[in-house]
Every structure is written in structure tokens, then in C-alpha cells.
Amino acid sequence: MHTVIIGNGISGISSARWLRKLSDNKITVISSESKYFYSRTALMYIYMGHMREVDTQPYEPWFWEKNRIDLLQEHITKIDFNKKTLQTKNGKEIQYDQLVLALGSKPNKFGWPGQDLNGVGGLYHIQDLENMEKYSPNLKKAVITGGGLIGLEMAEMFHSRNIPVTMLVREPSYWNNALPNEESAMISRHITHHGIDLRLNTNLGEIVDDGNGTACGVIVKETGEKIDCGYVGLTAGVSPNIGWLKDGPIETNRGILVDENLQTNIQDVYAIGDCAEMRNPLPGRRPIEAIWYTGRMMGETVAYNITGKKVSYDPGIWFNSAKFLDIEYQVYGEMPPQPAEHHQNLYWEHDDGEKSIRIVYDKNSEVVLGFNLMGIRFRHEVCDKWIKDKTKIDQVLQDLSLANFDPEFYEQYEGMLLKKYNDQTGKNLTLQKKRKLDQVLKFLKVRS
Amino acid sequence: MNIIQKIGILLFLVAFLIFTLMPGLNKFTLTEDTLKISNEHHRTEVLKLAKEKGIIGKEQGSNIAFIKDLKSVLLTAQNNLNEQFSSSPPAGVGEWDFKMADWQIKNYVRDSITESGSGWVTKNPMQGFLLTFGLGILGGLLFIIPKFAQPAGIKNDGIYHSSLTKGLQFGPKMFMLLSTIIGVLIYGYKYNNGNLFWPLLTGIIALIIVGLVFLYEKEKLFNPPRSASVVLTGWLGMLFGIYLVGFYILLYWAPHLITNWMTIVSPVSEFLSGNKASQWFLYGLMYTIIVLVMGIRMISKYRHNKYQMVRTASVMFFQTAIAFTLPEILVRLNYPYYDFKNIWPLNYSFFFDYNINNLLASGNLGIFMLVWGIVLMLIGVPVITYFYGKRWYCSWVCGCGGLAETLGDPYRQLSDKSLRAWKFERWIIHGVLVAAVVMTVMVLFHYFTGSASILGISSDSLRGWYGFLIGSAFAGVVGTGFYPLMGNRTWCRFGCPLAAYLGLVQRFKSRFRITTNGGQCISCGNCSTYCEMGIDVRAYAQKGQDIVRSSCVGCGVCSAVCPRGVLRLENASGDINTRADEMRTIHISEDQVGIL
Ligand SMILES: Cc1cc2nc3c(=O)[nH]c(=O)nc-3n(C[C@H](O)[C@H](O)[C@H](O)COP(=O)(O)OP(=O)(O)OC[C@H]3O[C@@H](n4cnc5c(N)ncnc54)[C@H](O)[C@@H]3O)c2cc1C
Ligand code: SF4
């Protein structure tokens, strides 16, 4: 059996690793971007000088040889699903028995005038970094459009080199289509505090050509104001990188459509990661979830399915994390930006305006549904178990210290949140647990 | 960088320059008083010759010229005495009371030059101190203090862009490493008076370790090594490394060339202990000042992280109070010089006869010191390490660790994270521990039985070689000199026998571990990059596996730099081994799998 995986991102590599654990297949991983798997999420740190490119590679070169995973740096341009062959850009043919498509995403471009000029770019591939590097020396100003995570990462990158940055954000507050209002406001403040020029309710109108095919500024749609700059970052989201497959026999919508076993409409062809779109997403989940963790879990799932052990894709309870400049962010469970009808929110914010805890629970049943943390770390497994076990808010609050994952000596804020809850409800709960690991382990062992 | 910081750097560089030139700045005059020779036969002969040559009372412009003159006189005197002894042996005088030995010449030169300064530096030691240490501290603080005004948070911007901190490419790095090893062995051969035995044995052991890593452990030779820097070598880093190496060579093996540095710190020494400064006082004072100033920098960098602040304050305290000031005060009170936190086998001379005798002869306090040292080593180390891991010592108390965590912080990313480096580490550090034990057993055997050698190996020569190779060359020259080459914990990771001992306890019997936060790791690599001990933290974190490693010094920086809040240092009694085996990012359990 020869399993070929196109794409060496987290999803493709996870599937290769699990295939090796579960089978003796010949495994080939193909990617045109880089020979070795590197962590896409760490791209910013290379530019900022925190790490070298090799430091972002989670495995040393010997790992692939030892685990008999062949790496091929080639670009695939065509797939013949009948003959089960792939064609590379250089005209080589590769035979496969099973195929995994882990093609990832590409930055969105919404047809802005000037979007293909030099000095304009997204942040997705390692080549995008090279582009940023090229324009960075003597750069007087960068304008970034898009109010999501990658936009802020790009802003932080330029900011780290003392290059002034303006961010154009369509929404009235940073990332408020994902963060609840208070958190969104907190991050907006934080961005401004760092000296980044954050323009809310602002859209990109067009990118101005300097006459030589290079960007020299942008025009704001609402006001017509021209902002001079030497680089324009396009970070208005990503979409599956599957343009070249659209006309083929494989069924696609925004992404490659897959069933719950991650199989496409074609026998022996699977799709995972950013490029896969679930035909029937699980309740409360989106059909495409372009994040690291889902890619990793899909990679694991697909390996089981390829080796004949049918498993449905089930990512479990939602979790995610990020870092906005200096503020860390973690989320577990349901956390809609606007509370649903049956949701009750308990929110506490530190006086310094850079830390907060939010717990969402059901108004009627009082069952805890989600946690949102800013500047405070909570333990994944504990939150996950509370949500899974349908634990009530009173219980969670009394035991909240079990979830505390901040480093030693850090101040603990569980008491303040509890006080807030007591004040709001007239109850008189007290903290019952310490954040000691022994207690946590005991708690986690109790079967639900 | 604002204007105050720029001024700070400028002042620091001026101070650094003056300090560097200082050894050549003084003038020297030999007088009958400053000729420090206590042996009467030697003194008479040397004085006679010196007067003949007219160097008594003559002012020399530099230490080198002074030493040259004095040395030629001493050598002539040595010759004359030898001849006199063989032609007409004086009655009632032992041969070596009359003849002058080579080591005595060394001492005479060192002692005399220390006393013979007559230029600006000797006349104005305080000004000299202020222009070097004072100005350097001022400049450093002017550079560091404004950092407190910046937003708190991880500050690693540009580390791999800076020529000082980006490390060396593989070629230059290997060149520096190999030339240092060979240089040490050649110098060791000389140091050992031309006896080949120890240098040769060391070379053979080194080759055996290389062989073990490459052959026995089947490490493939063609694995591409990862160099620190991608394109260019960090030349500033390399120069800084060479400077540090040079400093240690002067300090350990040529102190007579740096008496001016001792002169300018003498007022401080006299204030503390009443004695003039030796090179060890100079070193201790510099060390303490650097730990303090760079400790403030460390705190400014990690002031969002309380663990880092407390820990840094702790190493600053132990260095200043326990390692530096207290021993000086003990000396002033006529007690033995004793560093209460230094533990065998890092403190390898603890069981040497002169130390034991000295402590035994110093009354109750001396006996307390002896007992304290033994209790700390036998009970303190295992018990405290059981509860808190080896971090209680390595990154909270230890002086070597203190320097590494302060001066060395900008270089922590340069430690090698490869599996190959880990293999070298295990062989070398445990090899040093074995060497320390063997050496100490032989020394104690000698002490108690009086027999000076076992199996034809003399305990004196072994302990001499251990002191030279491990105590000076490895711990000092390589340990600190290699910060910009191989990271700030080169000594702690590869060489420290106490770290090996603490590590064994930590690995097999301790409650300390680093736990990982479920599935939150994004494999970014910050934790591994900034691990000064070269642990590939990410390899564990991305599998959700707890980290239990003998080398971990618990500095907590992996947890601090992790952008996703994945790592936490903790102590707990339960489950350490199962947690370290389990992989908690696996989300498909076997019972979910339907076999077709
Ligand atoms: C800057 C940045 C920061 C991020 N931060 C986070 C974060 O903090 N947390 C989080 O959860 N997610 C984050 N994400 C999202 C996350 O990185 C992605 O969801 C994840 O990397 C997708 O993995 P993948 O394996 O599906 O695809 P990819 O990693 O994109 O891998 C696909 C690979 O396939 C190659 N390829 C595609 N087509 C072909 C072809 N025809 N021939 C050959 N090779 C081909 C591509 O070049 C690419 O190398 C971030 C993304 C970016 C860009
Ligand atoms: S543990 Fe944190 S720092 Fe280490 S790789 Fe994972 S996310 Fe990055």
C-alpha cells in the first residue's frame, strides 16, 4: 500500500505519524512550500527574531528517516483519480493507493484594486515572510487590512521592528465577531496602548500604485483619505487552497466536501485540515474550522479510517487559544460573541484592564457551557471535564482553583469572580479547592 | 532605544574600554620593601643582583617591562644559587631552602608586582574603581532602567538579528570548541610540568565519549547538524566569547598580569575583610556586581512574571550575601573563608586535607561548617530535591546558575536541542560526576590512611588535574566563555557534577514536573528555543506529555515564553510516571474504533 499525502502542514503530518503507528504502509508526504514540516503558527516569531526557521520545525531531520516517511518537495498540478496518479509541476508522475489531501488555505483577496501590486501580501506561507523581509528595510509605514488574529500578528511583527502600523478594521471593535464585547474592547485598548494605529469601522478602498507596480499607499473607503505606506498586508481571513481541483471530479463547495470519515466523494481519497469542509458538521460546529487543533485531530482520525478502522471525526468540546500582543487568550466550550437567549454570562475583569474571566452557563439548568480567559491560564482538561459532565455553575465556581494554570506565585483571581457571583445572586459560596496538582489529578480521575 | 539608553551604552562601553586597558596603565617601581621574598638566601641574592642591574628604584612604564626585568634577575639568581649549592654547599641548610624552585619564582613575581605599583592606578585606586566599575554600573543601569517603562511582556524581539546573540554557524562553533579543547590539553601538559599522563587520559576519554555517541548509540554521522545562525555568524558574540575566555585564562593562570584590577578593588576588599584584594576577590566582586546589574535587567524583562522575579531576586541575594559578603566577614573575624551554599561535588575541594584541617582547627564554628557541608550534601540535597526538584538549587541558589540566569539570559536560545547533544550531555556530565567521586575517594583515602597513591596513581596529581581541567577550564573558561557559543548553561548542562547528582534525584525520586495543558500546544517551538538546558520541551508539550527530565533546572522560562499557556512547573506527589508516559493529545480512544 502506498499512501500519499499532499500537504506537510499539521494535518498532513499528523496523518502520516498516525499512519506509521497504525500501519506498515509506504508513506509519502508532498509539499511545495518546504521540505520539512514547520509550525505555521510560529511564522511571526521568525520575522521578529525570536526563532530561526529550523526552530519552528517540530521534528529533527532524522525523524522522517527513522519512521520511514518519505518527504518530497514538489508541486502537484493534476490528479488522475481513475489511474490513481499525481502529476508534479516538473512532469513527474506519482502512483498512489490512497490519497490524503491536506492542502491548507490561502489568504483571501476580495478584488480590491491594486491587490496584486508588489509590496502587497498576506501571511500564510513561508514565502510571505520573504516578501515582508524584502520590503522591511527602510519601511516607513505598513497598513494592514483585516481585524482577525493574523492581522494582529502581522501588526505585531512590524511593530517589533519599530515600523509604524495602521490597522484597518471593518468592525466597530477588534475581532468582535469572535470575542464578546468586553474582551473585544480590552484588546482594542491594548492594541492602541502599544502604539498601533487601530482604525475601527474602516474599510480598504483601494491600494495605490506608485507608477512602477509597487504599492505606495491605500485609500480608505469611507473617507477617501490616503494613507502613505510601503507595504500593505492583506489579512482578511483565509479560504481553502483548492482552486486547481475545482473543475475535477472531486466534489467541492468552499472546501473539499468530506463525510464523517473524512472521505471525499471519491473512493480512497480523503481531505483533512483547513481544506476540508464537513458535509454534515456536528451541532454547534462550523463546516470548515481552519485551526491547528482540528487539523491535528483530523490527521489522527483519517489514519484510522485509511487503515480500515472506521472512526467518525469528533473534535470534542471546542477549545482554542491565541495571544494578542501581550495578552494571552484561551477559550473552552461555547462562547458566542453575542450571548444566546438561554445564556447567562458571569464576567469579571481586573482593574488593570488586561485580565478577565468569563463563564457562560445555561439560565435554566445552570449548567456551565463555556470559559473565556484573558491574561489568565486555565487547565484544558479540567474545563473540558466540567463542560462534558454538565457541571453546574455553583460547583464550578467553588472548585474553580482546580482550573488555575498560571505559573507559581501568580495572584489568583478565582475569589474575585466568586465574590462577583455572590453579589449578583445573593448566594454565599466559598472556594472549596486549592489549585494543587494532586487535587486536580484526583478530580480528573473521577469517571463521569 | 531612547536617548538615556544610548548614553547608558556609551558610558558602559567607555568603562569597558578603560577596564580592558587597565592592566597596562600603571607604573611600577621595585624597592627593597616591595620585593616580596621571605626566604633569606633568595632575598639576599636577588637584592644583590637587582641593585647591580639598577632596577631597584627604577620606574617601569608597564607591568610587562617590570616582569621582564624582575624575571631575568630571578632566573640569574636561581642559576647562581644552583651553582653555589653544587660548588660549596652551605652548612646546615636544606637543598630546597637554598635553591630557588620554579614555582617560587612565579610567586615572587606575583607578590612583588602586586606591591610595586607606583603610578596613577596605585595612587588613585578609588578613581580607578569609579571609572571602571562605577561608570560601567551607571551605564548599565541607564540602559536597563528605562525598560521598566515599556509594556510588560515577552521581550525577545531581534535576538536572532543581533550579532551579539544570534550564535555561530556550525563551522566556526566547532572551530572554537575544538581549539579550546586542544588548547586546554596543551596548556595542561605544560601545567603538569611536561607529564603526559593526564592530558593523554583526558583526550582518550573524550574520544571514547565521541565514539559512544556515534557508534554505540548509532547516532548517524550524516545527520545535518543545526547551526545557530542561518546566514552569518554573530561576530560580536564570537568576540565577546573570546574576551571572556581570555579573561578566565588571565584570572586562573596569569594573575600577575592583572594586578592593576586587583589594585582598584582593594579599597573594597580592605573595607570588607581588611585584606588586600586577591584575584579571587576581584572575581567575586565582579561576579556579584554583574549578577546584580544583569539581575535587574532580568527582572525588567520578565516583570509580568512573578515566578521569574522572585527567582531572580533569590539568586541575587544568595550571590551577594552568602557567596560574596559573608565569607569576607568571616575572614575579618578570623574564621575560615566559607560559602555556606556551596556543596560537594561542585565544591570539589571540600574534602581536601587542607580544608578539613583548617575547619577542624577553627573551633566550634569550623566544626559546624564541616558538619553543615556534609549534611547539606547527604540529606539536604535529596530531601529538598524530592519536594521541589533541582531548581531549588540550580536556579534559585547556585552562583553559577545565578550568573547564567542574569548575564547569560541573552544567550539561552543558543543551547543545542538535538538528540545528539542530549546523548553527549548524558555521557559527559555523568562522567564528570564519576571523576569527582573517584577523586574525592582517593583524597579521603590518602587523608585517613596516609597512603598517597592507589594503583600507582597519586591522589595529589589526580586532584591537581581535576582542579585544572574541571574546576578551572570547564567551569570557568568554557562555562562562561562559551555563553555566546553554546548557551548560558554549558557548564551546568555538560559539566557540573552537583547538577548530575541533583538530576539523578530529580529524575527518579522527586515530585517536580512540568505539566502540559491538554491539547493547547501549537508546536511553535518557543519553549524549546528558550530552554537553556537544551531540552526539546515541545516534543513533550505537543503530545500533552508531562516533562520529567534530569537536566531541567526549573528556570520556568519555557512556561513564561509559551504564547498559548501550555506549561506549568509544579510539585505534587501523585502520578508522576503515568503522567509522563501518557499522551493526552490523543483524542481517539480504542473503544471508539469500530473494526470493520
Ligand atoms: C500566521 C498564522 C497564525 C496562525 N495561528 C494559529 C493559532 O494560533 N492557533 C490555531 O489554532 N491556528 C492558527 N493558524 C491556523 C493554522 O495554522 C492552520 O489551520 C493550519 O496550519 C492548517 O494546517 P493544514 O495542515 O490544514 O494546512 P497547511 O499548514 O496550510 O499545509 C498545507 C501545505 O500543503 C501545501 N500544498 C498545497 N497545495 C499543494 C500542491 N498542490 N502541491 C504541493 N503542496 C501543496 C501548502 O504549500 C502547505 O505547505 C494560524 C495560521 C497562520 C497563517
Ligand atoms: S508548549 Fe507553548 S511554547 Fe512550546 S511549542 Fe507548545 S505552544 Fe509553543
Structural notes for this entry:
The complex is a heterodimer of chains A (448) and B (596). Chain A has 448 residues and is α/β, with parallel strands linked by helices. Chain A has three domains: 2-106 and 239-306, FAD/NAD(P)-binding domain, CATH 3.50.50.60; 120-236, FAD/NAD(P)-binding domain (3-Layer(bba) Sandwich); 319-446, Enolase-like, domain 1 (2-Layer Sandwich), CATH 3.30.390.30. Chain A is built from eleven helices and 26 strands. Chain A has helices spanning 10-22, 43-47, 61-66, 126-135, 149-160, 181-193, 292-306, 380-388, 393-398, 414-425, 437-445; strands at 2-6, 26-30, 69-72, 76-80, 85-88, 93-95, 98-101, 105-107, 120-121, 142-145, 165-168, 197-199, 204-209, 215-220, 226-228, 231-234, 238-240, 256-258, 269-271, 276-278, 309-310, 319-324, 327-333, 343-349, 356-362, 368-374. The longest helix of chain A has 15 residues, at 292-306. The model of chain A has no long low-confidence stretch (mean pLDDT 96). Chain B is mostly helical and 596 residues long. Chain B starts with a helix and ends with a strand. In chain B, strand 3 and strand 4 form a beta hairpin. Chain B contains 26 helices and seven strands. Among the domains of chain B are: 27-118, no CATH class; 158-253 and 340-509, no CATH class. Chain B has helices spanning 3-21, 40-53, 63-87, 95-98, 102-116, 120-123, 125-144, 170-191, 197-216, 235-253, 259-272, 279-301, 306-332, 353-360, 363-388, 391-394, 399-406, 419-449, 459-481, 483-486, 490-494, 497-508, 526-529, 537-541, 557-561, 576-581, and strands at 28-29, 59-60, 453-454, 457-458, 512-516, 567-571, 594-595. The mean pLDDT of chain B is 91. Chain B has a two-stranded antiparallel ribbon with strand order 1-2. A two-stranded antiparallel ribbon of chain B has the order 3-4. Strand 21 (309-310) of chain A pairs antiparallel with strand 7 of chain B, so a sheet runs across the interface. The complex binds flavin-adenine dinucleotide (FAD) and iron/sulfur cluster. Flavin-adenine dinucleotide binds next to helix 1, helix 5, helix 7 and strand 22 of chain A.
